[in-house]
Amino acid sequence: MSLATQLPRVGEGNIDIHYLNYRDYLSVEEIEAIEHEVTIMGRRHAAGIEALKLVQKNRGWISDESLYAIADLLQMSASQLEGIATFYNLIYRQPVGRYVIHICDSISCYLTGYQAVSNAIKDHLGIDYGQTTDDGMFTLLTNACLGSCDKAPAMKIGEDHFEQLTPQSACEILQQLQQELPKDTPNPRE
After folding, report:
1. What is the rounded distance in angstroms from the CA atom of residue 74 to the CA atom of residue 36?
2. What is the pLDDT of residue 21?
3. What are the beta bridge partners of residue 15?
4. Which DSSP string do the residues of 127-165 spell out, in sequence order?
5. What is the reported pLDDT for 2?
6. Residue 56 DSSP class
7. The whole model's pTM is what?
8. How far apart are CA 94 and CA 96, in angstroms?
């Protein structure tokens, strides 16, 4: 039996409450994948982070509706799941670009040229941290540690890690990604 989750909606000065059932919002594939994670974890609540990652992989980010639907499926409160989502820095609670760039700003990266790499990327893309390019292709974020302290400075784009960066090598990586996309690729933010 599903626990109906209340989802507050803000609209023109008043809040309207409606109920969101996970079966009405999540795909069959998403539900099956999350239920598989539950069997591995043994407890429904323990699958929270994996459920968020699975839905984000399909949708690009975790909307409020996604969060409430996942919470409903896992039989946990939305505030508990929100705590997980906001703690884990690879869960996006707002729309992001096709490529999310995480630049490591740990002490190791900072001491080995992080600032020059960061400035070069910002200049190349014309955005600052927390912003997305107008074409919806890149979002720029910092990350406290990417685990590449011995090969700093580092960044992560998608599942790919790039180490021992220079301002020039970082911009070359971005140029490669820009060239790989077909011209008729729709803007993911539209």
Report:
1. 12
2. 80
3. 10
4. --TT-B-TTS-EEEEEES--S-GGG-S-EEETTEEE-S-
5. 41
6. H
7. 0.77
8. 6
Phi/psi at 25 (5° precision):
-120, -40
71-92 pLDDT, tens digit each? 999 999 889 999 999 998 889 9
Q: How is residue 184 annotated by DSSP?
A: T
In sequence order, which residues have a C-beta less than 8 Å from that of residue 123 and are 6 or more positions away? Answer: none
Q: 64-73 burial, b for 16+ CB within 10 Å, e for fewer?
A: ebbbbbbbbb
Query: Could you give the residue ranges of the DSSP H alpha helices within the chain?
Result: 22-25, 28-41, 48-59, 64-74, 78-87, 107-111, 114-125, 167-180
Q: Which of 85, 73, 66 has its CA nearest to residue 37?
A: 73
Q: How confident is the model at residue 180 (pLDDT cuts 50, 70, 90)?
A: confident
